[in-house]
Amino acid sequence: MSDYILQTKGLTKKFKNQIVVDNTSLSIRKNSVFGLLGPNGAGKSTMLKMIIGIMTPNSGEILFENRPWSRADLKDIGALIESPAVYPNLTAMENLKVACTLYGLSDTRAEEVLNIIDLENVGKKKVKNFSMGMKQRLGIGIAIINKPKLLILDEPTNGLDPIGIEELRKLIRSFPPQGMTVILSSHILSEVAQVADEIGIISNGIIGHTGKINKKDDLEKIFMDIVRRNRGTRQ
């Protein structure tokens, strides 16, 4: 039995003549936090969108639980990509109940998730009055409403203050013990280093480094070396 919940093999995505993701291969271990690092425009979001079926790769393969990915696997995948998809004129609880209805779940799951994301004290407050951090946590709550095996978070700390970042970090680390694997995309090296078990560094669509985080490694040097090396590969 494979220890990996998700693997990509030779994944490639082109837009006209531009290669955005170039022959990438990754292996994501079950019940871990995997940090996908790269500068803006490196291909992170495109890669994640292929994993959740928003985009179709030009070539390559995606395996979910050791078998070819299919749209049926989306029931086991939660995602927060770009802005949280929430209804601003509804409360947090109402938003979660809408998500429960879509999945055919009882409202008790909404109550459970409200506690998990630590918004129970503002459950009756309209989302339009939420801070950015509260909206992000609600977006994550909607993404985990169906108890996914894999949770994908694309730049979730963007726009957050230090307190919001710290709260989100604790929330993300709480998921693997609950049976959820997390892929966390970011361009902020220090944030990923504090929460991830393993990382992959992508630049110019090319994966230049993967592996467990070792405190002895100079991740900033590794990151910058890869970015500089790949910057001119297709110029």
With helices defined by DSSP (H or I, 4 residues minimum), what is the helix count? 7
How many β-strand stretches? 10
Provide the CATH superfamily: P-loop containing nucleotide triphosphate hydrolases
The neighbouring-strand order within the major sheet is 6-7-8-3-9-10
> Structural class given helices, strands, pairing?
alpha/beta
Structural domain tally: 1
Give the assembly state of these chains: single chain
Largest sheet: 6 strands, mixed
The coarse silhouette is globular
- CATH fold label: Rossmann fold
Question: Which characteristics define this entry?
Answer:
235 residues, alpha/beta, Rossmann fold, four-stranded antiparallel sheet, 7 helices
Verbal overview:
- Helices cover 31% and strands 28% of the residues.
- With 235 residues, the chain is an alpha/beta fold.
- It has one domain: Rossmann fold, CATH 3.40.50.
- The strands form two sheets. It has a six-stranded mixed β-sheet with strand order 6-7-8-3-9-10, with helices on both faces.
- α2 packs across α3 and α4 (132-143) runs parallel beside α5.
- The protein starts with a strand and ends with a helix.
- The model has no long low-confidence stretch (mean pLDDT 90).
Topology of this protein?
Layout: E1 4-15, E2 18-29, E3 33-37, H1 44-51, E4 59-64, E5 67-68, E6 77-81, H2 92-103, H3 107-116, H4 132-143, E7 150-154, H5 162-173, E8 181-186, H6 189-195, E9 198-203, E10 206-212, H7 219-231
Parallel strand pairs: 3-8, 3-9, 6-7, 7-8
Antiparallel strand pairs: 1-2, 1-4, 4-5, 9-10
Helix pairs in contact: 2-3, 4-5
Keywords: ATP-binding, Nucleotide-binding, Transport
Organism: Alkalibaculum bacchi
Protein name: ABC-2 type transport system ATP-binding protein
